[in-house]
Specification:
heterotrimer, A alpha/beta (240), B mainly alpha (294), C mainly alpha (328), A: 240 residues, alpha/beta, C: 328 residues, mainly alpha, ABC transporter involved in vitamin B12 uptake, BtuC, 14 helices
């Protein structure tokens, strides 16, 4: 569904991404992990069109989306969330979702009904008249995810949606992710730091370090991969 | 033809230096505090009026009046920072946009205060040396041109030195690049901001003195001065004093030499178009760096 | 209970509107009509400005440019084809302004934040310079609209109703935009443009559309003003000061409601008139400058309507609590 070929991204002298190849299959949940600064969010930004890669190609469902304008990429079916949530603060929760719904061409029912449905799906229905600033962190994260869903994407890029949640909230969030895949039939790529969340949800993991892909594979294999352990904990630990 | 071109080029350079002095202080505040001070030139005009009245009433030479102008405008700068900029920075979501509108209001306030107090008659500065000029290679160079060049070198050189060699100047640059780091290093941001703003307005004053030496001025000129200051600063680069001076010279020469061939108004419009294009392609200006844009 | 209340308030509003419309029929002093004309004109301008300024958050100083385009276009038609063609002339002014807005807007709207404000100001200055220096339509001296052969009272009467009607139409258009898909899109752009792009909003196109609609409406008002003022010069037609005033009015009511700028316009027009009456022009403008500073410092982001509503709610709560204390 999503393919990346030799993607590199330079910011002036800083090389953020270097020769990344990846292939994401439809209907999977893929994890993108790596130490801080390894280029995960940069890769997301390139895929979603915030800025183009310096070189390489990104292909989504046989469309070359390299360097496309973000709204075109999102209308092709890519949705994303942001690491630090960015809800529309002066709009109500309802309006936040309504915006995304209204800008689709293929709304089957009335926009309001569809918005309500999405809100219920995300467990935010009672909060719909509230402003995002009045919501607790977990709800704000859910808002961010549901808003990305409002455009009916086929691919969803989640950027650290599990960060800062307690155990109960984490369980609910993981459930939500699974439901998104099952009920909305969305392929998911998630950047995460929380190991247990990744191991429990992803079927495939890609590991980045300092802009390069250093490993990819099934969660059990990645856990034991010495290169990965070295990236996180250093050589000494890996060798032990 | 060559004579006309060189004369106008020289005039452009000097005018550019005078504007560049004002632009230097303006760009420093813009880069360091993210504040766009649209009233910057108004303070320059205020300084020009101070020179005029000091000359008329006390017979004080314009250069000597700097002794009054510099501390006076420094004080005004500190006051403005405390009363307006700091509260604005605390409340506004986007300080830069807010500062445009707020300082626009200040400029209207100052312009009309000056208009009321000093009347709309254009003023000239006439000193013993205003009419003296030198002949160099069949070109006529008024003495005032040399004075302005001198002012430019001293004030902008001084500003650069201040920013790079003195503790407070480095503090200003530190806060500009990394505010939290600067705080951790023990720099007092409010002191730094106050001094920074004071210095900025003081240089506006020096610029105003330079301007009144080479052309007439009136309260309502502050807007056209400001427009050029903004154009020059945008061209030269956010936060770059070097850029402000070089930009000033460049724009001054373009305007003067260009108006030999086509009406000045058209040259101005072309300059506006260039600036808009610049904002699109390289919004940090020629010598600015991208990080300062945030 | 609240049903009756809301019907009563709607009724009161209707009566007030009817009264305002009928003011000229009561033969008031001409001054009142002149004031009304200015007020409605600025109301129309402020509401139009708000479509790009308040809804989308792109604070524009280009108002003067489109105002002048309207005044000049309408003037051209009227001087060459007479007042029979005045309505097509005004519409043409709007169309031309819209066209230019798209042309200039495409690059300029890509400039973000504070630089956009300044760049849009350059647009006005640019137009003024061009019109001052080409011989087109009279150059710096400007040109005159043909006089309408009526006495001054009838003249004011006509324009009072015209400006009122224009303001009403503009208000209606703004109301429709605000409650439409375009409106939500513009609000999202104002909130967070990058995020808006991720939910399929073509921000570039939407911004240009908003800018163009705003420009059209402003130009229409400009055309009407041209007929009223009858003398159009580059200084008056392409006036940065007009842009600044409209910006201040918009900021006062800055927000997502078409009614906000109405209050902003009325406040500032009133202030301007009262101050100019009792004080001299410069002091009035000084206070205006001070007002701009205060607005930016103290007014919340969502504009005066929301602020007033919140203040009203707080007052009601205070009142209710007082009553509770008295009863217990």
């Amino acid at each position: 569904m999503l393919k990346g070929e030799h993607i590199s991204k330079r910011f002036g002298g800083l090389v953020a991404l270097s020769n990344i190849d990846f292939h994401i299959n439809q209907g999977t949940i893929v994890g993108l992990i790596g130490p801080n600064g390894s280029g995960k969010t940069t890769l997301f930004n390139c895929i979603s069109g915030l800025y183009p890669p310096s070189s390489g190609r990104i292909i989504f469902k046989d469309n070359d989306i390299t360097g496309c304008v973000p709204h075109k990429i999102s209308s092709l079916g890519v949705g994303r969330t942001f690491q630090i949530v960015r809800p529309f603060e002066t709009l109500t929760v309802f309006e936040n979702i309504l915006a995304g719904v209204v800008y689709r061409e293929d709304v089957a029912k009335s926009a309001k009904e569809e918005t309500l449905e999405l809100l219920k799906f995300g467990g935010l229905a009672e909060k719909r008249e509230e402003k995002p600033q009045n919501l607790p962190m977990a709800a704000r994260k859910r808002l961010e995810i549901i808003r990305a869903l409002s455009t009916k994407p086929e691919l969803l890029l989640l950027d650290e949606v599990f960060a800062g949640l307690n155990d109960t909230e984490l369980k609910e969030a993981i459930e939500l992710v699974f439901r998104i895949r099952e009920e909305k039939k969305v392929t998911i790529v998630m950047v995460e730091h929380l190991m247990k969340a990744i191991m429990g949800t992803c079927q495939w993991i890609i590991v980045l370090n300092q802009g390069r892909k250093i490993a990819e594979g099934k969660p059990e294999d990645i856990k034991k991969n010495p290169v990965v352990i070295e990236a996180y904990f250093g050589k000494a630990y890996a060798q032990s | 033809m060559g004579y006309i071109l060189t004369q106008s080029a020289i005039g452009g350079v000097v005018m550019g230096v005078a504007y560049g002095i004002m632009a230097g202080g303006y760009t420093m505040v813009w880069g360091a505090m993210r504040v766009i001070n649209f009233a910057h030139a108004a303070f320059g005009v205020l300084a020009a009026y101070a020179v005029f009245y000091l000359l008329k009433v006390c017979g004080l030479d314009p250069l000597l009046s700097l002794v009054v102008v510099i501390p006076g405008l420094f004080a005004l700068g500190v006051i403005m920072q405390e009363l307006l900029i700091r509260p604005l920075a605390n409340r506004a979501r986007d300080i830069t946009s807010a500062s445009v509108v707020a300082t626009l209001g200040v400029s209207i306030l100052i312009e009309n205060a000056m208009l009321y107090s000093f009347s709309p008659t254009p003023r000239f500065i006439a000193t013993s040396y205003s009419l003296k000029s030198f002949s160099v290679l069949s070109l006529t160079i008024p003495a005032t041109y040399l004075i302005v060049l001198g002012l430019g070198i001293i004030s902008m050189g001084g500003l650069s030195f201040f920013l790079s060699r003195t503790r407070i100047g480095r503090g200003i640059r530190a806060v500009w690049q990394d505010e939290d780091g600067a705080l951790l290093s023990g720099i007092n941001p409010s002191l730094v901001n106050r001094i920074g703003y004071g210095i900025a307005l003081a240089t506006a004053g020096i610029g105003g003195v330079a301007m009144c030496l080479i052309q007439s001025f009136v309260a309502s000129a502050q807007l056209s001065w400001m427009l050029l200051v903004w154009v020059i600063a945008t061209f030269g680069g956010i936060g770059s004093v070097k850029g402000a001076v070089l930009g000033g010279i460049a724009i001054g020469v373009i305007l003067n030499v260009g108006s030999v061939f086509i009406p000045r108004a058209y040259v101005t419009v072309i300059v506006y178009a260039i600036i808009i294009a610049l904002l699109l392609i390289r919004p940090q200006g020629l010598f600015g760096n991208k990080a300062s844009l945030r | 209970m609240s049903n009756i209340k809301s019907r009563l308030s709607k009724g009161a509003l209707g009566v007030a509107v009817a009264l305002i419309v009928c003011v000229p029929f009561f033969h008031p002093p001409i001054y009142v009509l002149t004031l009304g004309i200015a007020a409605f004109m600025y109301i129309g301008l402020a509401i139009s400005w708000n479509i790009i300024g308040g809804y989308a958050g792109y604070i524009s100083l280009a108002t003067g440019a489109f105002f002048g385009i309207g005044a000049y276009s309408t003037g051209y038609i009227v001087t060459h084809y007479g007042y029979a063609m005045v309505f097509p002339g005004i519409i043409l002014g709007g169309v031309i302004a819209g066209f230019i807005a798209v042309l200039i807007g495409y690059p300029v709207l890509k400039i973000k934040g504070p630089y956009f404000i300044l760049a849009s100001g350059l647009i006005v200055m640019g137009f003024r310079l061009i019109f001052m220096n080409t011989g087109f339509m009279g150059g710096p001296m400007g040109f005159f609209y043909p006089m309408i052969p009526v006495d001054i009272f009838t003249n004011r009467f006509i324009f009072y109703e015209v400006m009122l009607m224009l303001a009403a139409v503009i208000g209606f258009i703004a109301y429709r935009v605000q409650n439409s898909k375009m409106g939500i899109g513009l609000f999202c752009i104002r909130e967070d443009e990058d995020v808006a792009e991720t939910i399929r909003i073509n921000t570039t196109r939407l911004k240009i559309e908003g800018f163009a609609i705003s420009a059209c409406l402003i130009a229409v008002v400009g055309g009407a003003w041209g007929c009223y003022h009858t003398h159009v010069t580059p200084m008056e037609g392409f006036d940065l000061w007009l842009s600044i005033m409209v910006l201040a009015m918009g900021l006062l009511g800055l927000g997502r409601d078409w009614r906000g700028p109405i209050i902003g316009a009325i406040v500032i027009v009133m202030l301007d008139q009262i101050l100019s009456l009792f004080l001299f022009a410069e002091l009035a403008r000084m206070i205006f400058g001070l007002l701009m500073v205060l607005i930016i410092l103290f007014l919340p982001q969502e504009g005066i309507i929301v602020y007033l509503i919140k203040a009203w709610e707080r007052l009601k709560l205070l009142f209710l609590e007082k009553k509770k204390l008295e009863h217990s």
